[in-house]
Design brief:
The chain has two domains: 108 residues, Ubiquitin-like (UB roll) (Roll), CATH 3.10.20; 319 residues, 2-Layer Sandwich (Creatine Kinase, Chain A, domain 2). The strands form two sheets. Strands 7, 8, 9, 10, 11, 12, 13 and 14 form an eight-stranded mixed sheet that branches. Helices cover 33% and strands 19% of the residues. The protein is globular, with a radius of gyration of 22 Å. Helix 5 crosses helix 6. The chain is an alpha+beta fold.
Length: 449
């Protein structure tokens, strides 16, 4: 792979080599072309603290991966199929490759989310099952300049010059307004082997959804999804605006989610969910039950930051209870309308800021939990999902972190060390965030008190 790439791309002089941390931020180095064979042969050293960083890039020392560990390097190896050109930096001769971290002895590093997903996939392989996965991302285009209050605002349309504040789901006019930008995203994705299939204008102004093609290789799908996010943000900058995967950039507009579709193939390549009526598919009902009973414990993975929880409002197409449905977008687990052979679940809980390796690993582990125990789901949801009763999901940040930290299912799935690592990093982020005094509390409370 390396020799062929270098021969096909003599213009490449540098390579961005990086891991994605817990918050999916790219962390790595730009190396010279001549150093690339050594990285493929032996790996590139990066400190284990890459997976102990908060959102601002500070090491959370309580994890034990900072000074207590001597900030020790681990070898990071290239992920097959991720060495691709960087079209937005073509003039500088730049390519990129994604890495995954091993420990000193060559075993998978416990803090790297990609290894956690690989471990869950191994359990499916032992049962002769292969998950087929597709990912949908929602994101906003925002002006690179903030408004007078320092808040994000929609960019001026390249054709009309107007800032659009209306909500227009599936608007073809909105797609046309940013046709050139979306076309460039598609071109870049093709050059980077990112299989996008469709784009639509979502509810919010400047909000779009792009679907990535389903595939029976969950690790590759997640690799592609992170490559997609980097490409979208880079293309948007080249067009004079920004793309953000922040779940809720506007108070009164729709949030941005990360939706995951999953079906399961047996050894003969047949979808084990296949049925004319979803209610008649026992395997489908079992996996739905498993995802629902584990849903709340995984909220901190699906909603990893303070803004993540702004999405969870009634009648906002975001689940508030562990419910499932057939073709109802208010539920947490939805069975989309499809032909029998393509019957699948859609997991609708996660925000666009979530780490896809962690979310997918959690979803698949829940599916296994239900399948192995032949669990039965509650009654299928019908009607308005926001008029349902039942135990609510943990939709505050401290509650979600505490529930994940105490979860026996999390420890059984990811191991004690990772649960402790993730919980410590998120608690540190939460404590630092809560220490700040906001303009709203000053304007609202300073005078009356």
């Amino acid at each position: 792979m390396l020799d062929r790439f270098l021969a096909d791309h003599p213009e490449v002089r540098f390579v961005d080599a990086f891991v994605n941390d817990l918050n999916t931020v790219e962390r790595g180095k730009r190396i010279d072309r001549a150093a690339l064979p050594g990285v493929f042969a032996r790996g590139m050293p990066l400190p284990g603290s890459m997976f102990a960083l908060d959102i601002e890039g500070g090491t959370v020392e309580a994890t034990g991966l900072g000074f207590a560990d001597g900030d020790a390097d681990r070898p990071c190896l290239p992920i097959p199929g991720t060495l691709v050109p960087v079209p937005w930096a073509a003039a500088d001769g730049v390519a990129q490759v994604q890495l995954t971290m091993n420990d000193h002895d060559g075993t998978p590093f416990f803090g790297d989310p990609r290894h956690l997903l690989a471990r869950v996939l191994g359990r499916f392989s032992a049962l002769g099952l292969t998950p087929v996965v597709a990912i949908e991302y929602e994101f906003y285009l925002v002006d690179s300049q903030r408004d007078a209050a320092g808040q994000p605002q929609p960019p001026r349309g390249p054709l009309t010059g107007r800032r659009e504040y209306r909500a227009q789901i599936n608007s073809m006019a909105d797609l046309n307004e940013y046709s050139a930008l979306l076309a460039e995203i598609d071109r870049v994705c093709r050059l980077q082997d990112i299989p996008t299939t469709s784009a639509l204008a979502e509810y919010g102004p400047g909000q779009y959804e792009v679907n990535l093609r389903h595939a029976p290789d969950a690790l590759r799908v997640c690799d592609e999804s992170l490559r997609f996010k980097r490409a979208v943000k880079s293309v948007a900058r080249a067009f004079g605006c920004e793309a953000t995967f922040l779940p809720k950039p506007y108070r009164d507009m729709a949030g941005s989610g990360l939706h995951i579709h999953v079906s399961l193939l047996d050894r003969d390549g047949r979808n084990i969910f296949a049925a004319a009526n979803p209610l008649d598919s026992a395997p489908l009902l079992h996996v739905i039950a498993g995802t629902l009973v584990t849903l709340g414990d995984g909220m901190a993975l699906c909603a990893p930051g303070p803004n993540s929880y702004r999405r969870f409002r009634a009648e906002a197409y975001v689940p508030l209870h562990p419910t499932w449905s057939i073709n109802n977008r208010g539920s947490a687990i939805r069975v989309p309308a499809s032909d029998p052979d393509n019957l699948r679940i859609e997991h609708r809980l996660a925000g666009a800021d979530a780490n896809p390796y962690l979310v997918l690993a959690w979803v698949l582990a829940g599916m296994l939990h239900g399948l192995e125990r032949k669990l039965e789901p509650p009654t299928v949801l019908t009607g308005n999902a926001y008029e349902q009763d039942g135990e609510p999901l943990p939709i505050t940040w401290p509650e979600a972190i505490a529930r994940f930290a105490a979860s026996e299912f999390a420890r059984g799935t990811f191991g004690d060390k990772f649960v402790q690592l993730f919980s410590i990093v998120k608690r540190a982020e939460m404590e630092e965030f809560n220490s700040h005094i906001t303009p709203l509390e000053i304007s609202r409370y300073l005078g009356p008190l």
